[in-house]
Amino acid sequence: MSSNKELRLALYMAAVLFVVGTVCYAAFPAKKHEQPVRIMFKTLAGKVLFDHKAHTSEKGYALSCQDCHHHPEGDDASASACGECHINSEDKAPAPEKCLECHDSGDFEGVALTKKTDAFHQQCDNCHEKADAGPREKEKRCNWCHNM
Amino acid sequence: MPNQKKLIVSHAPYCHDGSNISTRSNNIMLAALPAVLHGCYLYGLPAVGVVALSISTAIIWEYLINLLTKRPSTIGDGNAAVIGMMTAMLFPATTPWWAVITGTFVAIVVGKQIYGGIGGNPFNPALIGIAILMLSWKNIFDIDYALLNYDFNFPAAYPLVALKHYGASSVESFSLTDLLMGNQTGSIGSAFGLALALGGLYLIIRGFIRWEISFSFLAALIITSLLFQLYAPGKYAGPLFHLLTGNTLLGAFFLATEDSSSPVNFIPMLIYGAGTGLMVMLIRNIGGHADGVVFAILLMNLTNPLIDKIRPKAMGKVNSHA
After folding, report:
1. pTM for this one?
2. Which domains can be identified in chain B, with CATH numbers?
3. Which domain covers residue A138, as residue numbers?
4. Nearest chain B residue to A141, by CA
5. Whether B252 contacts B295, CB under 8 Å
């Protein structure tokens, strides 16, 4: 059994650390950058960890926002996440809410938006092909990005 | 002629050397402190929050359970604080507050107190808390996901996940010096290999943990990973990579050596440590988890009572009664 002195010390330590912990959680949550550093896409074929900063920074591939966030054109500030417009919906589903912020629902009659899965694959494939980066062998193509 | 004085034993009362459980607890926390501080430096105040909340709530849970069971308070011996600290070291820096509180509750109440308190627990309490959380909310322990918003000046992918999914070629992006010096992602207290190794050696030299367990753990891990690498070099990473990544060093020096859940005899300690190192590598290379330290130690905790029966025969002769 511990002495009264040790008991009091443990109680003081618990009280101080509890306050420190509460303050850290309340006042200093994990920081979020204006632009994401990395993005994790959770797909049916496993997770994909995309290094956003490596693709956009000057030391990395120095892509401009418009290279991927292609719509609306010429407006970096309003870049939307890919999945906000490209959704994996049924063919006759209503237009995504994000699109309706600027467009009328009538604008989408007869228009088939590229589905999310296809949009991502096309975007990554085309860019990597142009840059001659990434796997060329068919059997390694999925594992290059997907954690399966 | 042998020194006959060595065999002289006097009757009680004996002289107490002044050491107690709190001395042991304080030394374990001191040995683990550099690795924890490195985690706090790397991940900032969110990590400080996790460590502070984990230690404090572990003490509070133990105090409350002592009150509830009307037993003398045991928080002064520092064991609850050690469990809180070990639990915190296994958490990613962005662990939500409710998960920390739940983890320490499971560790202290389910992992330790329901067995009667210190010395009675068959499993490492901190690992019980972490294992329950890992099975219940596995996304919390996805290091890559937990640290998405951190910008590091070293490869940010969790090394063991990179190895598991992309093969041994992905290991080339991690320098062994970086891994040793803590320039890798991981849970709060597991990244800084050098600090963990020095802390472990300090505990061994001071006699607070047994070298047999740590040594056989690491030896088995090195041998097993080497055999895997020799079998398929393109698929499996080498011993040094496995030694310096994940929770290996934290497990070898601070988790597997927990008193109550590990053997006390020489041969059983070697078997227990070697079994843990072997299981870690089997889980990493063949199993579904990227890091197998938590489950490997818990599994060997389970075998502890059985393998600790391998011990010297008592001297003397017992008459057989027909």
Report:
1. 0.88
2. 21-154+164-306 (1.10.3430)
3. 39-147
4. B166
5. no
